[in-house]
Amino acid sequence: MKKNSIKNTRINMEVQKELSMLISREIKDPRINPMTSIVHVEVAPDLKTAKVYISVLGDEQSKKDTLAGLKRASSFIRGQLAKNLNLRYTPELTFVLDSSIEYGVHMSRLIDEVNAGSGQTQDEQTGETEDKED
Predict the structure, then answer these.
(1) Which tens digits make up the pLDDT trace of 61-92?
(2) CA separation for the pair 103, 39 (Å, rounded)
């Protein structure tokens, strides 16, 4: 993976912040889940395209509907980005579903189940014992 320049990193962060505000406040499409968040944005160095990684809290149908709603509203979102950000080019947006947050929650749940199933406390796992003086 190519390392981004400081300028490109700053543009990625600004586009991500602006997209988050637009999706939560401006778009009124009922297909878009209110629990949609922008995880990461990768704007190409030439500013022509951008991949927007989104996370949706909900079932599979809700994720598909949200992705379809965002693709449908991409021209409106791009126009709002052009108004709010001062860039030479406004990037063409491509929305990609990112399931890394769900995967992390699932792995955390599995780790908790393994720890609860072992029946050991934290002190027993580290081998520490308390010395009691009478």
Answers:
(1) 999 999 999 999 999 999 999 999 988 889 99
(2) 14
